[in-house]
Design goal:
Blueprint (H helix, E strand, L loop, with lengths): L3 E2 L5 H18 L18 H6 L17 H44 L25 H6 L13 H12 L28 H13 L13 H12 L12 H14 L10 H6 L5 H13 L3 H19 L4 E2 L5 E2 L6 H12 L15 H16 L1 H4 L1 E2 L1 H14 L4 H8 L34 H6 L10
Antiparallel strand pairs: 1-4, 2-3
Helix pairs in contact: 1-10, 1-15, 6-8, 6-11, 7-8, 8-12, 12-13
């Protein structure tokens, strides 16, 4: 078994990983760093419940991007994208109808020009022509409108199959709204789709393309008027494209403002003390603790943080001047990892909400710890968002105890080279492996001995 990216785990595996990470952190960190303050009469919420609340959409949010919970920003982006796709389909349909009408009119004019005579068909009659425009074949309508018969699912290509798998799980907030309250949410066996706000991805992409050699990026001032205009366009849900005409410093300021104004900071405030406590650790112990804390983040926060850290690492890689093959000097941007951590640290790790009293006030110890922690995240982001084989084994052991009916499906995805059990009767269909319906069980003996021999660790105790 090899290390895998955190984003490749299924929703069920990530939920189990969160529980394991929380258990190990409670043993590593000092008492109190993972506790939460009282929330009115509701008492103390668990870390799990509090972090899950960050993934809930707020339907009363009027802006689309700024000052909106991250999960809602992603939902707004998805709604805008779906609207654009629907408009595009409508335009294509209009063009097809227009082309069909034009073709029919041309045929009609030719027929009138020939008078009452017509070209005789071989049987002596006149070939039939439509009396009205013939629209596109009905078979294409189902594809255009997204309809799909159940019988056709088995004939899908790999890409379409992956699309269906993504649609099953990817957006936990698009589950059946009629689900009865209080019923435990059934987690999917498929990975969660990449959840990064459009504004973050486009700002990072623009700066990676046009700003890596810009001296003082994130430090040089910007045009407040142009930044405000971009901000309003994103807040209105417009499809904003950032090209070479946009100032690098304006886009950099826009990205910082988005992170600063998030009502729920990119690293949740409930984990603020836990992240800062890692500054007192050293070496591998520090990295291991940071990794466990990252495993606790909701998917949208985790994905967005990873995208941002990748970008910051790329900026830091161009901090020093270099020379091209012709011997010409390429100026560096002067933004080292330390400088970037100083600029972005207070926007990513926030103790208080924006606008609250003392929101911008940090003591020297906290400021130094924030910079150090963000430095480590930038420098080691490649490994911190990977799940080690040992942790994968722990997750599978726990699921073997709590959800044994899905374990074969997960194992076969991790060990695709292990052959499937042979059928005694060639005409007999194999029972489906554990799909999201979870009707398949290990007790029915469908896991072949070779697969079991590869995962004998499942018989061990998890420890929680």
């Amino acid at each position: 078994m090899q290390p895998v990216a955190l984003q490749s785990l299924s929703e069920l595996e990530r939920a189990s990983l969160q529980e394991l990470a929380l258990f190990q952190l409670q043993e590593r960190l000092p008492v109190g760093h993972l506790s939460l303050d009282r929330d009115g009469s509701k008492g103390i919420k668990s870390i799990r419940q509090k972090l899950e609340s960050f993934s809930k959409e707020r339907k009363d949010c009027s802006p689309h991007t700024f000052g909106v919970p991250l999960a809602q920003v992603i939902a707004n982006d998805r709604a805008c994208r779906q609207l654009q796709e629907a408009v595009g389909r409508s335009r294509r349909l209009c063009l097809e109808v227009e082309a069909t009408v034009t073709r029919f009119r041309a045929q009609r004019h030719r027929r009138l020009a020939m008078g009452t005579s017509c070209i005789r068909a071989p049987d002596g009659g006149c070939p039939e022509e439509p009396l009205s425009p013939t629209l596109v074949d009905k078979s294409s309508w189902s594809q255009r409108r997204g309809a799909m018969s159940v019988d056709s699912i088995t004939d899908l290509s790999d890409n379409a199959s992956e699309l269906l798998e993504a649609l099953q799980l990817s957006h936990p907030h698009e589950l059946d709204p009629c689900r009865s309250r209080g019923k435990k949410k059934q987690l999917s066996l498929n990975p969660i789709t990449w959840q990064v706000p459009r504004i973050v991805d486009r700002c990072c992409t623009h700066l990676e393309t046009h700003g890596l050699q810009t001296v003082g990026i994130f430090r040089v001032g910007s045009s407040k008027k142009r930044v405000q205009q971009l901000r309003e366009e994103f807040d209105q849900g417009l499809d904003v494209f950032l090209d070479e005409n946009q100032s690098v410093h304006d886009v950099a300021a826009l990205l910082k403002e988005f992170l600063r104004d998030m009502p729920d900071s990119l690293i949740p405030r409930e984990l603020y003390g836990a992240f800062l406590s890692t500054a007192t650790l050293e070496g591998q112990a520090q990295l291991d603790t940071l990794q466990l804390l990252l495993f606790l983040l909701p998917p949208c926060h985790s994905d967005t943080l990873l995208r941002l850290l990748r970008f910051l690492a790329e900026v830091a890689r161009h901090a020093e001047s270099s020379w091209d093959p012709q011997g010409r000097q390429i100026p560096g941007n002067k933004m080292t990892v330390s400088n970037l951590a100083t600029v972005f640290g207070p926007n990513i790790l926030q103790k208080e909400k924006p606008g609250e009293k003392d929101a911008g006030a940090l003591n020297f110890e906290d400021s130094a710890a924030i910079i150090l922690v963000l430095q480590r995240l930038i420098e080691h982001h490649h490994s911190l968002f990977m799940v080690s084989p040992e942790m994968q084994c722990d997750v599978l052991r726990r699921l073997f105890q709590t959800d044994p009916d899905v374990i074969e499906y997960l194992l076969r995805r991790k060990f695709p080279d292990v052959p499937s059990p042979e059928r005694e009767d060639p005409g007999e269909e194999l029972a489906p492996c554990a799909l999201p319906g979870r009707t398949h069980s290990l007790e029915r003996g469908s896991v072949c001995s070779e697969l079991y021999s590869s995962v004998s660790f499942l018989n061990l105790h998890v420890g929680i």
